[in-house]
Amino acid sequence: MTTTNQYPDLLSEVRAFRGKYPEIRYVDLICLDIPGHFYGKRYPIEMVEKVAAGSPLKVPQNCVLLGTQGGLYPIGDYCFADGDPDAPRRLVPGTLVPVRWEKEPLGQMLITSDGTDAPIEFEPREVLAQVIKRLEKRGIHPVVAFELEFYLFDRKLKEGLPQFPRDPLCEDEDDQPNMHIERLSRFSSVLHEMVVAANEQGVAANVITAELGPGQFEINFGHCDDGLKAADWAALFCRSTRGVAMKHGHRASFMSKPYLNAPGSGMHVHVSLYDRDGNNLLAADDQRPLRHAVAGCLDLLPHCMPIFAANHNAFRRYGAMVNAASRASWGFEDRDACIRIPESDGRNLRIEHRLAGADANPYLVLAAILSGMEHGLDAAREPIAPLNDDRESGIDFPKDMLTAVTAMRSHPVVNEGLGSEFVMVYCENKRQEFLDFMNEVSAREYRWYM
Fold first, then answer.
1. Locate the GS catalytic domain: which residues (predicted)?
2. pLDDT in tens, 158-180
3. What whole-number distance in Å separates Cα of residue 364 and Cα of residue 401?
4. 91-111 pLDDT tens trace
5. Which residues lie below 8 Å from residue 87, measured CB to CB, with a gap of 6+?
6. pTM for the full model?
7. Which of 181, 267, 264, 278 has its CA nearest to residue 221?
């Protein structure tokens, strides 16, 4: 399988970009790793054109396995026993765009191993691609929309800790958490450029909301009938949002729980399922498939927690006072539930999966949700009572990483749905990263125990 045969318009895309942006000399070729960070290489634009024409593009396979701090862990035969081989990548059509937050003119383009002669089983985008291909063979077509909450901080840290962002006009701290529209006005310059930057990347970003936390905001995306593209949007949005924030003198973070006394940041994912004729599958038979899909998501949720809560901090978000569930639950128009069913007509009936932290990997979150829905449709079981009928309804899920990876590693449906090689690699990556994170004596330990 070659790039030129599969995407005959790719070369035209690169040449058109060069013609439109002659000042851009370099392009970042980027791909998401397991923790949800971009890695890649900065290529001269003329070399990108050669790749589009068919020249090979290779990046070390184990870049996908990088930990949060960039290190590698011994995982099976990977990393330290395989000679660190290169693996083929391809350019993702339609993703070559200019970058507005860098000082020098720059472009960026997504790359992936999906669709190459040797796709990497544990690459997050490949994991999602396989789930979507499996659903499409069954005549099931997801329509997806992400919503991402994030915090703005002052650009400078104080003794290593984040500080509230300051109003650019009056220098006041944004220390009064509320949803007042005036907060959007005070930070309009950075927020509006975030939307513009996202739109320039092809991301259908639109509605801006001031959230409850100090410096916390949410920007929504339009619905997308291509699940891979929807996850691409979420990943690219995080990159551009951080860049634009720094340009304006702020830091933007998708950290799940930056303040213990303020709401966490979530990744809310809306998913509908349609057949080949455009009929909403969830709405059929008095919404029975909807209930089955909910039951499947709830069944797999406790076994996918390392995906939804991707690090130690993310587990702090659960059980908070505002809209953060402590048990797997569902409900109609209920934001305390992990799975909310928004009010809608039959055409737009969907689930809103609200459990994942904003710093989770969007490819893997969507892959886990779709696998849960597929599992539910196959099992055809009714879910537990919704919170609307029973406020105590729910299923326990792990609240720490070590318990969570154990629950995920051995679950047969998760292994089948996401791929056993991926599950092994992912769980071991998260297990070792957690142990690495905990392997430090903090100042608080000395204060408490010395």
1. 124-450
2. 888 888 888 777 777 776 666 67
3. 16
4. 999 999 999 899 999 999 999
5. 58, 59, 60, 61, 113, 116, 118, 120
6. 0.94
7. 267
